[in-house]
Amino acid sequence: MSQFAADYPWLAKYGFGPTVKAERWNGRHAMFGWLAILGTGVAKSHGWLPSGDVALTYNEWGGLAQQGFNTYITNERAIIMIAHVHALAVSAAAAFGPQVLGDSLTLLDGEKDEDPYGLFVPLKGTFGLTPAAEMANGRMAMMGIIAVVLTSAISGKDILEVVDIGTGGNLLTHPMF
């Protein structure tokens, strides 16, 4: 991290690059990603996504619905996409809006970044609502997303199918909620 700060002082001053703050925000996004995956699975298993397998048409949606090669996204994917756009807007507002709650995406003038946690987050302080617990949970969420995406790519199954198999069929096949 010190080499990055020496090479790119302006970026490092605001917390961009390999910093604790960047890792924390990436972990938050990964945790939200898991919430979105599980929420999509629950909504799909209960039929809460109307006409999920129906493709959108160019006449009604224009270029927004195109995937390329004259194919169009389904209604289910459009609903999920808008939910993610909403999450992105909320994240941008939290990052660059007024700092009411005390944690920003970037380092404020004069703010010093936390000391790095190292390869393993120390066990002391990783329980409850602590910064160390958030870091440990964020790292596990990031590793989990990587594992699910790799498993999906290797097996050729959808991400929801992989997560359903990982939950013993309780997400899509036999919904628990």
TrEMBL record:
Assigned keywords, A-Z: Chloroplast, Plastid
SUPFAM superfamilies per the UniProt record, alphabetical: Chlorophyll a-b binding protein (SSF103511)
Top-rank lineage group of the source organism: Eukaryota
GO cellular component, one term: chloroplast
Binding site for chlorophyll a 1: 67, 77
Residue numbers binding chlorophyll a 2: 103, 134
Keyword Chloroplast attached: yes
Compartments where found: Plastid, Chloroplast
Protein name: Light harvesting protein
